[in-house]
Design brief:
The structure is a homodimer of 348-residue chains. Chain A is of the alpha/beta class. Chain A has a single domain, classed as Alpha-Beta Barrel (TIM Barrel). Helices cover 48% and strands 12% of the residues of chain A. In chain A, the strands form two sheets. A seven-stranded parallel beta sheet of chain A has the order 1-4-5-6-7-8-9. The longest helix of chain A has 25 residues. Chain A is globular, with a radius of gyration of 19 Å. The two termini of chain A are 19 Å apart. At the A-B interface, helix 10, helix 12 and helix 15 of A face helix 10, helix 12 and helix 15 of B.
């Protein structure tokens, strides 16, 4: 499969035979690495996203330093609303802020239609450069937020506890909500297609805020758009991963979207989910990211439990159940990666 | 059952025949009511908790104004750590803060052993006074945080996104964590027994932060302590409700604690949970609190779906899936209560 020296991740996505379980970590190109912080000192977050050299540099760091089996392009899900004309302020540690959130038809009119190959060309350039610099060592993953998760940020404008504003929108003006979700979906499908065209070997859709919805609302406002995107992505054999945090109540629905891989948070039992949908899709996850604050024994015990829970055979990509936290010691991340690489052999 | 004029709530807890589904709302004595805010203007939050006349006054407001079928004593779960010697600052809207959180053995040594009948006498006085003023109109519910949830606040000291500190404690010093949880459990059991002795007709245990744990950690650090408390509470026929938000992965375990009623958040399907455990316990919930931002149609549709999902027969107490939000119009809360009272008749 391709000219990759290490294609374990891609084979696991397709549930093809592998020698050991591959591992990567969400937010692996991030603040826990001193080498990342050194780059970050020279440029702000958005500048890093928009400068292919810097994006490529931090994307590759965890391959060299931690030894993960896949790279994920350094970027942010909010580059889409930013390209649509929303002014984005990134406060690292505090989260992103849109000072003029979208709340009604008037606000929505100001959103530009965009062509990702033009308006997000810097991302595609970063993909090309990263591919070149990776030089076939490991596959490169591209990603996007789901339409629902992007809409949540666009409407709330900032971090939220109860998501009151986006919920008011979907309850009281579902027509506008669906119009926006449809528009975002088309952009996301084009964006992920362009990333694959530029060289990404797989793409992941993050539905970070799917889990705040009731099961019916999730189907109406998130799931159908994820399904629509997956049906539209132009790809040959590149797997699609869907990670819908907290959506414990419709794992089967997510497995029916056409996704190749389902990401799971740490509240799910991998073995039980495998029984439910493991003949349809591969599973990715699901170590509680805070376990990396633990001792060597804690980390190894928990990783062992997860490997054992999935059991024998291909179809598991080891990952965290959410992004790696900024104050985790890099040595603990490396310890996890080394341990999973060795320990997982007996399951294959 | 007792001399109550309206004992629908208590009969539903015991799955005894009822004429219609009872309803109350978590945080119903709260900021969404202008009458509550008027009292709050005269006294700070802790003073309200500690002044039986004020606590009784706001406890009874939603009975008169909204027409709910049960009162829940106005108080806060953090009165226990406060009585144990931790200095508590309540910033309404921002959440509570302990400036000196518990992180190690040294910190833990400073926690006092308390006798709730002495150190939390003001709560028991508020129960007695409220009972007198309610004059048998509806039952009175008392509550406590679960040991795990109390420990989380005591260790984090303030609102948290990743709960890094309490997780570091349980991973790296489980001995201390269990020692603290055992100590808190004894206090909670005594506290809830004293509340029942003082006149509460039912008690609810809030495990607000159970859902941040992996399934194994939940069993070890939360569930066993809830079970221990329930076995120790001195009661005759007073039901115990357990609400463990986000613990979708061990509903059967919670139903096995000896609880009479399980509270559910809005990500759960009431009908499916009833199939799973409805022959053991009653179910309470589970309207998404943000639905009360919706139109009359939205609120009625969603309430109908929930009643229909539970189906015919006793054993359902209508509630929200989390506390009512401070900016919900009281008229919408009243609309929900009136609608559930009428619409639910056909299920009985």
């Amino acid at each position: 499969m391709t000219n990759l020296q290490n294609d374990l991740f891609l084979r696991a996505c397709k549930r093809q035979p592998i020698e050991r379980t591959p591992i990567w970590m969400m937010r692996q190109a991030g603040r826990y690495l001193p080498e990342y912080r050194a780059v970050r000192e020279k440029a702000d977050f958005l500048t890093m996203c928009k400068t292919p050299e810097l994006a490529a540099e931090v994307t590759i760091q965890p391959i060299d330093l931690i030894g993960v089996d896949a790279a994920i392009l350094f970027s942010d899900i909010l580059v889409i609303p930013e390209a649509m004309g929303m002014t984005l302020e990134m406060h690292e540690g505090k989260g992103p802020v849109f000072h003029r959130p979208i709340r009604n038809e008037e606000d929505a009119k100001e959103l530009k239609s965009i062509d990702p190959t033009v308006d997000l060309k810097y991302v595609l350039d970063a993909v090309s450069l990263t591919k070149k610099e990776l030089n076939g060592r490991v596959p490169l993953i591209g990603f996007s937020g789901s339409p629902w998760t992007l809409l949540t940020y666009m409407v709330e404008g900032r971090g939220s506890k109860n998501f009151a504003e986006v919920k008011k929108l979907i309850y009281n003006n579902p027509v506008l909500a669906h119009k926006l979700l449809g528009k975002i979906s088309d952009i996301v499908a084009d964006y992920l297609s362009a990333k694959i065209e530029a060289g990404c070997n797989a793409v992941q859709v993050f539905d970070t805020w799917g889990g705040i919805l009731t099961p019916d609302d999730f189907n109406e406002f998130s799931l159908q758009y994820i399904q629509s995107i997956i049906s539209k992505i132009k790809r040959t054999n590149e797997p699609v991963i869907v990670f819908a945090k907290g959506v414990h109540y419709n794992i089967e629905g997510i497995a029916g979207t056409g996704a190749d891989v389902i990401g799971l948070d740490w509240t799910m039992d991998l073995g039980e989910v495998r029984k439910l949908i493991g003949n349809k899709v591969a599973l990715q996850g699901n170590l509680d990211p805070t376990k990396l604050y633990g001792s060597e024994e804690v980390i190894k015990n928990e990783a062992s439990k997860i490997l054992q829970s999935y059991g024998k055979g291909s179809g598991h990509i080891f990952n965290l159940g959410h992004g790696i936290l900024p104050d985790v010691p890099p040595a603990n991340a490396k310890l996890l990666v080394d341990f999973v690489k060795e320990e997982s052999k007996k399951y294959h």
